[in-house]
Structures are given as structure tokens and as C-alpha cells.
Amino acid sequence: MRVGVVGAGHVSAQYRETLAGRADLDVVMVADRHAERAGQLAGAFPGAQVCDTDDLLADPAVDVVLNLTTPAFHAAITRAALAAGHHVYSEKPVAVDRSGLESLAVTAGSGPFLACAPDTVLGTGLQTARRVVDSGRIGTPFAAHAVMVTPGHERWHPDPEFHYRAGGGPLFDMGPYYLTALVHLLGPVATVTGRSSRPRPVRTIDRGPRAGCDFPTEIDTHEVAVLEHAGGALSTVVMSFDATATTADPIEIHGTAGSMTVPDPNHFEGAVSVRERGRRTFEPVPVSAGYVGGGRGLGLVDLASRLADGAPPRASGAVALHVLETMLAARDSARRGGAPVRVLSMPPVPDPVPLRDQW
Ligand SMILES: NC(=O)c1ccc[n+]([C@@H]2O[C@H](COP(=O)([O-])OP(=O)(O)OC[C@H]3O[C@@H](n4cnc5c(N)ncnc54)[C@H](O)[C@@H]3O)[C@@H](O)[C@H]2O)c1
């Protein structure tokens, strides 16, 4: 498949690692508002051309658009690419507001495929955990805890402001990893309640040429939610750009026959452990499913191989839209003082990934 990349910023280096030299995916065009960034990325792919975003989206020589822009631009670029007949793999979140959600829900699903990050959910950590749940080893899952805390991305990102403006925040930035994992493990969400707060109104950039610059926090940065899954399980979610650290596991799943720890869903690999009812300790679970050695771009590789088989991508656009609707519901609920908000979409849970060393 011929790939056109829009957005050649920070994360594109990770995609370059995965995509450079692959026979199944050929990066043919790169666009960025900063032409020099596009040029740098294109340099890693022999024959790739630097061009305008509009030219890339209109070019029939592109089969799939890889949308690596900042979140506020995701929906418009994805919608234009789908409308032009290209498949799309987008970075997360798939969109940042209801109008983006609604326009993509109409455009996606008819014709070209929409796939979306996170693709970490296809790695061995989450897929091994999924296999445990599907096997019945922990009985019927009835609860999950998902916890992500960091003092903020301004510690490492040279241009962190977008994380603290509309469309940013911990739930929209990191929530897609955790909520996508929860949907793969426990099924879609039916109802959400949420609350949020803004403990630090000013941030300071730590690294890079603008180190020391202050900027305002324009949105809430400590967000909590309770998700009621359609199957009845209750997930408690804590996402914070304010807390210093935590000792909590990134995700725990509790079932009628046991409890399971799930590794960081921001990573492709990590240890899964299970403590069955009546046992005294958590036991490690051997790796038993997922793409081994994954990196960002794996979801695009999966999209290409699934298309060859006529199957929908496992980094499912339908799940990404559902996760966005769930996050919007959490924020709506928080605005209404914690009143429950229903989630209407009900996507199929993507197929599991068998253990795959080569991909
Ligand atoms: N930085 C990371 O480690 C990381 C990790 C995982 C996911 N992500 C996600 O990747 C996305 C990009 O993040 P980033 O850190 O690379 O941001 P970034 O600001 O470093 O890069 C984004 C790039 O997109 C370009 N761009 C924005 N709008 C454009 C448009 N309309 N047309 C053409 N180019 C446009 C910008 O010029 C910039 O070069 C975000 O959605 C983020 O959540 C980032």
C-alpha cells in the first residue's frame, strides 16, 4: 500500500522506525505545515515526495493516509481523506469534539476503512490479557481500575501547549490507550459518569528551545470517570496531568474467579499476572497472544494485512469513535456535576491477535 503521511512532528520518528524498509507499505508522500519537517521524514523513505496537505489528499497515488497531525486537525484531515477514497490510519484521539465525532461517524463505515491509534492494544501485553479474559480463567469480569497519572507532558515535549487547550487534557491524550484496552477486554461502554478539576492553572516548559516559558492551563487536567459497560462490568478511570506518581497498576481487572493485572496500555509489551480466588499470590502469565516486538505503526501494518484478507482493521476506527463518544460523555457528565450520560455507539470488539513473531 502506498502511504501518504500528513504531520511529521515528534511522533513521526516512531512511525519511521516501524515503516522504513517494509515491503508491504511504501511511504510515497509527506506533508507538514513545516516543510523542513516533511523533508526530514521523507528522507527516510526512498522516492518519497514532500508536498502540500491538499495535494496529498487529492492524489490517487496514495492508498492510505497516515494522519499524524495534532488532535485538533485529526477530524478534518481524516474526513477529507476518506471522502477522497483513501483508507486512513489516524493518531489518537480520532477527533476532539461532537461535531468531529458525528461527521466521521457518517463518513467512516462506507467505503474506505478508518483505523486509529492506539495500536499498542495489538501488542503482546494487552492481547495476552485479553486471552486470559476470553479463556474464563478469572471468571466473569465485573470491575476494572485504570489509572494514569503524570505531572504533565511539559516535562519532555518541546511544544506542549496543545495538551492544555480544548482537545487536550489527560482523558483525551492518554484515555484512548486505557479506554481502548477496556473495550477490547470488557466490551463497549453504555453509560458514563465523570468529574474533573484544574489544580495547576499555569505550566512551565521544561525542555527544548522554549524551556522556562510559562503558558496557561485552559482546560481541566485531573479527570475521573465510572464506565458502565454494556455487559455490566464497571470500570473506574483516573487520568491526571497533576499527580506526581502512583503505585497503582495501570489496569486491574476483577472477575468472579480471580483478579488480573494488565500492563501499561501505552506500551506494546509488559507483564500480565493473575491471582485466582483461593491463591495467595499473583502468578505471571506467559506471553500467549499479540504481535511480538510492536512499535507505533503496527496498526497500519495490521490494516494492510487485514485488507489483503478482506477483514476490518483491528486498530478499529469504530472502536476509536466509540472511545471518543465515551470520553465526550465523561466530560459532559463532569460539566453536569456527575449526571450519568448514555453512550449510543456499540461497536463490535475487534478480533484477537494470535501470537505472531513475524509481521
Ligand atoms: N509525541 C509522542 O510521543 C506521541 C505518542 C503517541 C501519540 N502521539 C499523538 O501523535 C499526534 C502528534 O503528536 P506530536 O507529538 O507528533 O505533535 P507535534 O506537534 O510534534 O507534530 C505534529 C505535526 O503535525 C503538523 N501539522 C499540524 N496540522 C497540520 C496540518 N493541518 N497539515 C499539515 N501538517 C500539520 C505540525 O506542523 C507538526 O509538525 C498527536 O495526536 C499525539 O497525541 C504522540
Automatic annotation (TrEMBL):
Domain GFO/IDH/MocA-like oxidoreductase, residue spans: 127-260
Keyword presence, Protein transport: no
Pfam families the UniProt entry points to: GFO_IDH_MocA (PF01408), GFO_IDH_MocA_C3 (PF22725)
Gene3D superfamilies per UniProt: Dihydrodipicolinate Reductase, domain 2 (3.30.360.10), NAD(P)-binding Rossmann-like Domain (3.40.50.720)
Protein's UniProt keywords contain Oxidoreductase: yes
Region annotated Disordered, chain positions: 336-359
Molecular functions per Gene Ontology: nucleotide binding; oxidoreductase activity
Residue ranges of the TM segments: none
Keyword tags: Oxidoreductase
Listed InterPro entries: Gfo/Idh/MocA-like_OxRdtase_N, Gfo/Idh/MocA_oxidrdct_glycsds, GFO_IDH_MocA-like_dom, NAD(P)-bd_dom_sf
Ranges where the Gfo/Idh/MocA-like oxidoreductase N-terminal domain occurs: 1-107
Descriptive protein name: Gfo/Idh/MocA family oxidoreductase
Naturally occurring in which organism (per UniProt): Nakamurella alba
